[in-house]
Amino acid sequence: MKIEVTINGERHSHDVEPRLLLVHYLRDVVGLTGTHVGCETSLCGACTVLLDGAAVKSCTLLAVQADGREITTIEGLAKDGQLHPIQEGFWERHGLQCGYCTPGMILAAHQLLQRNPNPTEADIRHGIEGNLCRCTGYQHIVEAVQYAAEKMRK
Amino acid sequence: MPISKSVGARIKRREDPRLIQGLAHYVDDIHLPGTLHVAILRSPHAHARIEKINVEAARRHPGVVAVVTGRGLQDRIGLIPCAANFPGMKTPPHRILALDKVCFVGEPVVAVVAEDPYIARDAVDLIEVDYDPLPAVASGEEALRRGAPVIHDDQGKDNVAFTWEIAGGDVERALREADRVVKHRFVQQRLAPIALETRGVLAQYLPGEDQLTVWSSTQIPHLLRTQLAVMLRVAENRVRVIAPEVGGGFGSKLNVYAEEGLVAHLAIWLKRPVKWIEGRRENILHTIHGRDQAGEVEMAVQNDGTITGIRYTVTADVGAYYQLLTPAIPTLTGLMLCGCYKIQNVAMKLTGAFTNKMATDAYRGAGRPEATYLIERMLDIVADELNMDPVELRRKNFIAPSEFPYTTGTAVVYDSGDYTAALDKALSIAGYQALREEQARLRAQGRYLGIGVSTYVEICGMGPSKAMPAGGWESGAVRVDPTGKVTVLTGVSPHGQGQETTFAQIVADGLGVDIDDVRVMHGDTDAVQYGIGTFGSRATAVGGTAMVLAMQKVKEKVVRIAAHLLEGNPQDIVLEDGKYFVRGNPTKALTLADISLAAHVANNLPPDTDPGLAETHFFEPSNFTYPFGTHVAVVEVDADTGEVEVKRYVAVDDCGQVINPMIVEGQIHGGIAQGLGQALYEEVVYDENGQMLTGSLMDYALPKAHNFPKFELASTVTPTPVNPLGVKGVGEAGTIGSTPAVVNAVVDALEPFGVRHIDMPLRPEKVWRLMRKKPRRS
Asked: Which residues span the membrane (chain A) (predicted)?
């Protein structure tokens, strides 16, 4: 099936198998490998991307479902060599160790801060509960999101 | 960025820019043209004979390149290695693909190689295997009962894999002469490490160059290279292993797995790149598990609280086959059985039992969390029997600071420690007395607050080679380019621990260069001559020391050349703010770049000085290191639901000197999270037929962000004399200290219900049942 998708502001058109998962389309067809696969069942959130601005798990969407829509992946977050404040927060506050969950975690935090620019610690902990991290114990991730929230409010 | 004094500072990680922008390369991110993909048919049975395998339909499926069975592979590839060996140990052959029978759910049976991963999976569904199911056994203790099905009947008449004992002093006598003997049985459940990146292997063979390159998500690239050379019967100098970006390990990638041998073999055979990426279900079925011990502790106690002896009789469920270190892991429990306490009479009798399950092996802490859990739970149980405060009982039995180095009853030598200092600090931060008062107040209102303390010591910095199954030393090399840029090559293989930053901090200070001018390379066997890898909280204590000693050799040469160029004496050369000069004459100064250029141009060197500027050091530690600390958990248990809320968590850890406090905090946070996960949520469950019941993250409960409070961290610093950095290691401390703190807190909360112990995980249903009894008035 032919699909047309805008990814990080660029238009892509490909002929794909109807069963191709969105995450495999992004990684193996388009070549954007920053989106990771952690569980294939929507439980870990490593594959989180923004689909028309909303955080979705790309391991349980088909590429054809993205036809005509806009996707932002981790590669599209920094603009003109400038890190996004959430990326900056993760770096400043040591919000990552192995880094595997990080792209998905950052995009989940992106949605959280769009919806709630001034979240409490509890809001953040609940807002990222669809994303698993095995390294950090989440505390530095929470601080990274707090850092970003403050910076984005300014 | 300060040019020096970066050691001890909260330096942001050098690894992060690529990771936060999605630019890093984990195994599956490496795309080679023409790559074939592997999918594996795994056993759905815990125990069965393979009667017949029909792969014809799979082989004919369009896009399939090859289908291989155990029979086909048998003569082409060796067995999966185990590095541990005890007298009398049974070692059943552990094949890449099953031959005549399968012994656990998830065991690889047939591999399909296809042009595309989707096609490979399709073709797996076309394979027909006739199994003749056999009775299975899914618990270590059941496996040792008379009449249990024998899993490896070619190895003997029972499921005893091995036995192992350790003893010190006279535990029989201590138990006989004690005022009382306190006994308790503990089950430490099976856990899945669940690194967020599953395992994965990519291999490429270039026939012209006769070069095999294997990219694997591993913690031990060099050991893997050696083992692959043996398994595949190829020359080791033709094998290059690369651990690219690795998405967590926690011990699960400290191993040599079937798929690593299989994929490497297929790449040589088919002369095309071959890739296999593990699915999460496969990861839970066929990546090693941790813990899984069941046994009884007997403690000899005097009425004044003095503990005089401990004996642990335990069955370790090792699964169906050994992985690299399977039998060695529970022996570490034995070494650390005395904890922080002066107990000279000690014994452990360990029986390893085969079961129809995946192998256990090293999972964060690897045998030491088990020891800490046992002794810290026992201390609380004993305190309860003696009607003593559990904190006072600990104080009474602590090894005193003046007694270090201290030789334990198990003959390990604790390097340094001040257990009371860490305990006092933790209790002060927690406000222990105030918490006890609040507990009493809330109990009167029918609310159940619990306070749990755990005082731990662990064995780290692994380790002296004489105490390790496959070498415990580490290598480090420091090279300076003619332009003054520095490259560090380390034999450790970090996968989240941040040594690209901490090692650069040390070198930046030591050689007087900007931290951004230091590049730390690891995980490529063509770049790093040899190394042991990252595990056992050893990377900085052992690998960092190797690097420092190499750096000191470089520094010595730098100083000699500087003295020659500046016409001074080497002993008068000082390094300040990146400038080398003769003491008292800072205006005439050289940078490392100036000196390195001179070393490489080499036309004006001091006599008897070789050109170039690069040194290597292989470091053998004289002992392990022994970090310690106190963790305090405050929980509230909901009487209506049995849910446990961790309200506060205080951790005071002493890992010796700290290179980067931010990274150390991160390690402790993550460790605590995994320890809490074990205490409250996590368990790999097989049913009595050996069927896996927790095969996805829907069933295997990994902790989430809202499960935890903000951890309150503090530290004490007791340097180790074992290495020149004074560092002890911090990778596992959090996991080791936290599990008993939480269980102690929950049992403490349930004291009004007469609860003496609960086996983990403390799931709400289990806790709720215990709270059905009417509480006694306190």
From this structure: none
Do residues B312 and B337 lie in contact, with contact meaning Cβ atoms separated by under 8 Å? yes
Specify whether the CB–CB gap between B506 and B586 falls below 8 A: no
Q: Are residues B553 and B432 in the same domain?
A: no
- Same domain membership, residue B767 and residue B729: yes
- What's the confidence (pLDDT) of residue B143? 98
- Domain end (from A48, A75, A102): A75
Residue B759 tokens, joined: 């086996």
Nearest CA to B296 out of B313, B309, B310 is that of B313
Residue pLDDT, tens place only, B393-433? 999 999 999 999 999 999 999 999 999 999 999 999 999 99
| CA B754 – CA B749 distance, rounded (Å) | 10
As a whole number of angstroms, the distance between CA A112 and CA A110 comes to 5
Each residue's pLDDT tens digit, B658-706: 999 999 999 999 999 999 999 999 999 999 999 999 999 999 999 999 9
Out of A40, A46, A139, whose CB is closest to B710? A139
CA pair distance B257, B234, nearest whole angstrom:
17
Which of A139, A143, A146, A147 best probes binding to B when mutated, by most B CB atoms within 10 angstroms?
A139
In this complex, is the C-beta atom of A44 within 8 Å of any C-beta atom belonging to chain B? Answer: yes
Chain B (216-245) residues lying within 8 Å, Cβ to Cβ, of chain A: 245
**Residue B319 placed within a domain:** no
* Closest chain B residue by Cα to residue A39: B280
Residue pointed to by tokens 């056992």: B536
Interchain contact A8–B (C-beta under 8 A): no
Q: Which of residues 124-153 of A touch B (CB under 8 A)?
A: 124-126, 128-129, 132-142
Q: How many CB atoms lie within 10 A of CB B536?
A: 28
pTM beyond cutoff 0.80 = yes
One domain, residues B607 and B630:
no
Residue A113, chain B, CB below 8 Å: the answer is no
- Asked if residue B727 lies in contact with residue B655, where contact means CB atoms within 8 angstroms, the answer is yes
Inter-chain contact B28–A135, Cβ cutoff 8 Å?
no
Q: What is the pLDDT of residues A22-52, one digit of tens each?
A: 999 999 999 999 999 999 999 999 999 999 9
| Residue B11 DSSP label | P
Q: What is the pairing mode between strands B274-277 and B200-206?
A: antiparallel
Tell me, what CATH number does B528's domain have? 3.30.365.10
Same domain, B581 and B490: yes
A28/B705 CB distance under 8 A: no
Residues A7 and A51 in one domain: yes
Q: Is residue A23 part of a domain?
A: yes
CA-based nearest residue in chain A for residue B663: A94
Enter the ipTM. Answer: 0.99
Domain count, chain B: 3
> What's CA B61's distance to the chain center, in Å?
42
Asked if A26 reaches chain B (Cβ–Cβ under 8 Å), the answer is no
Structure tokens of B567?
């016409």
Is A94–B666 a contact, with Cβ atoms under 8 angstroms apart?
A: yes
Instruction: Please provide residue B346's backbone torsions phi and psi, each rounded to the nearest 5 degrees.
Output: -150, 145
Range of the domain at B738: 412-460+625-778
CB contact under 8 A, B673 and A138: yes
Q: Which of A31, A57, A75 is the last residue of a domain?
A: A75
Return the residue matching tokens 């696969």: A37
Average pLDDT over residues B300-309: 98
User: What's the burial of B514, exposed, middle or buried (CB within 10 Å: 0-12/13-18/19+)?
Assistant: middle
Domain boundary among B619, B639, B663: B619
B279 touching A (Cβ < 8 Å) = yes
Burial of residue B34 (number of CB atoms within 10 Å: 0-12, 13-18, 19+): exposed
- Cα Dmax for chain B: 89
> What CA–CA distance (Å, rounded) separates B542 from B464?
10
Q: Is A139's CB within 8 Å of B706's CB?
A: no
